[in-house]
Amino acid sequence: MTNPIIKITVKDFGVMTAELYPEKAPKTVANFLKLAESGFFSGLIFHRVIKGFMIQGGGYTEDMGDTDAESIKGEFKANGFMQNDLKHTRGVLSMARTSDPDSASSQFFVMHMDAPHLDAQYAGFGKLTDGFDVLDAIASVKTGNYGWYMQDVPKTPVVIESIEVVSK
Description:
Elements: E1 5-10, E2 14-20, H1 26-37, E3 44-50, E4 54-61, E5 92-95, E6 108-111, E7 124-130, H2 132-139, E8 143-146, E9 150-154, E10 160-167
Antiparallel strand pairs: 1-2, 1-10, 2-7, 3-4, 4-6, 5-6, 5-7, 8-9
């Protein structure tokens, strides 16, 4: 059985390719694939970028309107899901969430550098196989605050043109 492959095309930056791991986080991968196949991510942005840490997207439009997707159970060890042992190393895809462990929906992040403090606390579900230059370029954009409540927002929107499921 081969793992699903996705292609994340980012306007003016290029393409990142990733392999997803349903054996580590089956509901997370199924949810992500469903959203990708429906075109949910097209036109959304990477709204939080912290060089040396991660880039986060999948929740906001270019004009900072938020999107809504169904929440799923958090598939990580601290939430009682023991089979997910994926470490948050450079290139790993993981689900963003609030303090509620079962609040992940569509927002995901890609690790720019290793962050072991996230291990077992967030649902890692894939890893880049190509496009690390694109990840580095996005991680290097100028950022600032958006209002009083959101920090590390790119000054120029970093737009996800599409997330395509290459193979399942």
